[in-house]
Design a protein that fits this description.
alpha/beta, GMP Synthetase, Chain A, domain 3, eleven-stranded mixed beta sheet, four-stranded mixed beta sheet, 19 strands, Capsular polysaccharide biosynthesis protein, ANL_N_sf, CapK_Type1_Caps_Biosynth
Length: about 450
Amino acid sequence: MNLINLLGKQKFNKFLAVKIITAPLFSIEYNHRIFPNIIRKRASKIDESLQQWALAQADFFSESDWRDIQLKKLKNILVHAGHNVFYWRDLFKKINFNPENFRDFCDLQKIPIITRGEIKKISPKNLLAQNINPDRAVEQFTSSSTGEPLRIFQDENDLFLRRICTYETYRWMNVSVDAKICIFGLESARNLQGLGIHISIIDMESVKFRERVYRNFLAYSPQLLIGTPAHLDRVLYFFQKDGISLKIESIIYVGESMTTNLRRHLSDFFSSKIFSAYGAREVSPLGIDCGNSEQNLHIVPWMNYLEIVEGKIIVTNLRNMVMPFIRYEVGDYGSWRNVNCQCGRQLPIFEVEGRILGNIDFSDGTSYPVNHILAYFAAHYYQEIERMQIEQNGLSNLIFRYKPVRPSAISNIEKMGIEYFNGIWGDKIKVSFEVADYFTSNQNGKIPIFIKN
């Protein structure tokens, strides 16, 4: 009697899916320079198929099933970090935490929460695993929703799984992986690279560029649009202004919160269903919208363990073996929703409190996305800027407010900053620099990155 007959097909599928979700990627053994590219690509393709099949089976997992999976994956990352990462090894010794004895979620509470500010003060060599092939480390920069530039290292295998999560998002929306996709901006989002057509939101400010885009856009007839709310707001503005009409099946917004007003306008104009996907560059996808209710974000338990502590979203990434993030405060606020979702998935639902950036508007009617400015300063001045904030007053004045890591960095930041701003928009708006030791919180207790008066 074989195992399938013994367990029954449904139980066997569940057994196999759990094994696939909890095990290391099959392609890890082949992701090495000694193997030809064709072998590595085939191994990755096998992994891709296995992961997609397993996650489809996981639709039927219970809360208890997911708890068991997360406990196993949490122990795995904790043991790995405790043995191979200097910072976590030293911290665990200091607090008398033995990851080998990890048994329950409450054990995780013994580990203190770590912030971006604290990570910036730690030498990268003390945060990187000593036993992982350096080829798997992918350098990235982020300012997240706090305006604190940070240099991080992602795991190539984690990035592969982020792509699988992108496919999973489509599946939840009933959109085919082979659907025609149009992505506005998001040039640095590696999980979207190679998918559909990509359009520069900055170039959309040019009439001639838009004319070419509209011809290609209408010929391509995309079924899915992806962008940040700020990008999609600008796309909507141009389509309305230029008299372009097109129906789109679905729209996914990422990177920021979307106002109810913009959500309604996008849905009405494009006759679209609107979905959201929430995540952070440091810790991958955190929430997937199933579409059964406005902003019904389900957790992504095969990628992260998510906590909400005193309103703050705290995340332990389960897949980044290169630079483990354990009980990391992402800088966003959220709350659990005690509802049963009509989609039938037994995954907790949460909501995120407004992370809104937007666009800088100029007197000539053009705009420039704030996230592009933050990305530039995060990549070039992560060692010199502790925190930054942009404030626009009317259409003629902009303040770049920042706290330098050290006073000696001020002259370089401002000199190069002036060159940068002059290069991207000339004299469209007057930019002044302001050094700050303190940033005022809003009514929700959060320091906004962009203030628009």
